[in-house]
Specification:
With 93 residues, the chain is mainly α. It is 38% helix and 0% strand.
């Protein structure tokens, strides 16, 4: 079971406020227990694998020429930027 101090620390790190910390603690503990059960399940005849995709699903790497810096930044929003892309801010603090 995950203790209240650990849950408070996780919530602080994630910048999450909970109305009812005791209720969340119970729900979080249930989730952790379900994950433990799932981790123990091993389909019959299957070997454990840390790799989610089969190797056949991957393409072969091919060396190809890349864009020049000028071509890569041709559609950049800022004309004075010749080093990076400027994107809208996505995280509010």
């Amino acid at each position: 079971m995950v203790g209240m101090d650990e849950i408070k620390k996780i919530a602080e790190l994630c910048k999450i406020d909970f109305d009812d910390l005791k209720e969340f603690s119970k729900d979080f503990g249930d989730i952790v227990n379900h994950v433990k059960v799932i981790a123990k399940v091993q389909p019959s005849g299957e070997q454990p694998s840390d790799f989610a995709l089969g190797y056949a699903d991957l393409r072969d790497d091919k060396l190809e020429s890349s864009l020049s810096r000028k071509d890569a930044l041709a559609n950049a929003q800022s004309e004075d930027s010749d080093v990076y892309f400027s994107v809208p801010k996505t995280v509010k603090r």
